[in-house]
Design brief:
Largest sheet: 3 strands, mixed
Strand order of the largest sheet: 2-1-3
Structural class: mainly alpha
Number of helices: 3
Strand content: 5-15%
């Protein structure tokens, strides 16, 4: 027997992509995600399993330490692994075969996210989102 609602202990994203380009199923696509505050209806949530923030982003203790290491020259700038980028591009094309999709956005681009201090998907991740929008013709939220 199938469940009628999403479980409270599952992941709020429908899919996750690791840095090797592997796609993992999270929350069943038939159920509303819980990844974008107040904006989950009609949204397919995809999370990239990679830190794509730059050291100057964020205001927590981790960001302070990253800024310190960056100032000392110990921080490499994050980058999207090529396999992850290719997989994401192909996966978006596959999803578009089955769903009407007209919008592609990073978490912080959706309404009501900045007030919560959201920095994801990070500056590097947001550059990827913008690049994918150009490739796919999708619009910003």
């Amino acid at each position: 027997m199938g469940r009628s609602t999403a479980a409270s202990d599952d992941i709020g994203y429908h899919y996750a992509l690791d840095c090797f380009g592997n796609v993992f199923e999270g929350r069943d696509i038939r159920f509303k995600g819980e990844n974008v505050h107040n904006y989950n209806t009609g949204v397919i949530g995809i999370v990239l399993l990679e830190n794509l923030t730059t050291p100057d982003e964020g205001r927590d203790g981790v960001a302070v330490i990253r800024k310190l290491f960056d100032a000392m020259g110990f921080n490499d700038r994050p980058r999207v692994p090529e396999k992850q980028k290719q997989s994401l591009e192909a996966f978006i094309a596959i999803l578009r075969e089955f769903f009407y999709i007209n919008t592609l956005g990073g978490h912080r681009e959706f309404p009501d996210q900045l007030g919560e201090g959201k920095i994801c998907p990070g500056n590097v991740g947001l550059a990827l989102v913008k690049e994918l929008r150009k490739l796919t013709g999708l619009r910003a939220p």
